[in-house]
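[Meeting: bench + compute handoff]

Bench side (C.D.) handed over the final construct sequence. Compute side (W.E.) agreed to return the predicted structure before the next meeting so the bench team could plan truncations. Sequence as handed over:
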Amino acid sequence: MWFTSDNASGAAPEVMAAIARANEGYARSYGADDLMTEVTAELRRLFEAPEAAVYLVATGTIANSLCLALTCPPWGAVFCHQHAHVAEDECGAPEFYTNGAKLVLVPGDHGRMAPAALRDALARTGELGVHSVQRGMVTITNVTEAGTVYTPAEIAALTAEARAHELPCHLDGARFANALAATGATPAEMTWKAGIDLVSFGGTKNGCMGVEAVVIFDPAKAWEFELRRKRGGHLFSKHRYLSAQMAAYLEGGLWLRLAAHANAMAARLAAGMAGMPGVNLRHPVQANILFPEWTAGTHARLEAAGAAYYPFPAPEGREAARLVTSWNTTEADVDGFLTALRG
C-alpha cells in the first residue's frame, strides 16, 4: 500500500530490459547513438511535428529549468500557478538556470491557473519600464500539483493570454501521459495545437528509471538548448542509457498504458472513499493523485496497517494526505488501503 509518490515505484520491466540490451557492446556518445535517432523520429511522429527538436535529460527539474532558461531572459517574469512544481519543489533551479528570472505566482482553484488571473498578472507586470521585471513567458503544469488536468481548450485559453503579449509558453509534463490518458487528447492537441512552444515530456514518474524528453517545436531554438544543456552539466556521455529508456517507454504505446493504469487505480481509490463517513476529497480526482481528508486518528490506523503516503496540513480535528498511484499499483493495494481506512 505504497502511495507516497509515483517516483517511489520501480522501472517497468520493458524499460529495464531495454537498458540491459543497450549495455551490450558499443554505441556513439552524447546523443549520437542509434536509439536516439529512433526516439527523435517517434516523438516527432507522436507530436505531429516533423521539424521538432528532441532532447533527453535525466530529471524533470533540469527539463523544466532549461526550458524556462531557453524562453525567458534574466530580467523576465515566469508566470506559473502559485503551487506549480517550478515554484514549490525545485529549490530555485528555475531561477538559477534562467540567471535570475522572477517567478510570478498566479492563483486558480484546484491547481489550475485561471485565465482572468493570468490576464491580471500580465497586466501588472512591467508597468514601471526599466525599473520593473519584464513579462517573460508562461509555464503550465499538466497534470497539476493538485492532481487535476487541463484540457487542450483550457490550455489554449491560457496561451491566448500569453500571445496577447507575444510571450512563449511551456508545458511541464512530468505526468504528461497521465493527462493524455485522462482527457483522450493527442500529444499535438495538448501542446502546439493549443499554443505551447515547448514541453517537458516526463518518463521517470511513469515507469522509467530516470529520463525526460524536451520537445521544442521551433527548431531555431535547438542549438541554444544544446549549449545550455552542456553548459549546465546535463549532457550525458553514455547517452544510450537515456535513449534506451525512452525508446522502450514509447514502443507500442507502453507510456499511455502505464499512465492509464495509474489513473484507473486512483479512480478506484476515489470510488472506494465516496460515501465513507468523515472522508472527503479536496480536489477532483482526474489523474493519479488524490488529496483526501479524514478524522483525526486515521493516520495512526493506516500506518499500523502498512500504508505509506504523505500527510498534509489539515484543520484542527482533521487529518489530510496526498496519495499517488503509479504504473504498478495493484487492485489489492487499493482495496487493502480502503479496508484499513474503513477501520
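W.E. noted at the follow-up: The two ends are 15 Å apart (CA to CA). C.D. will use this when planning the next construct.
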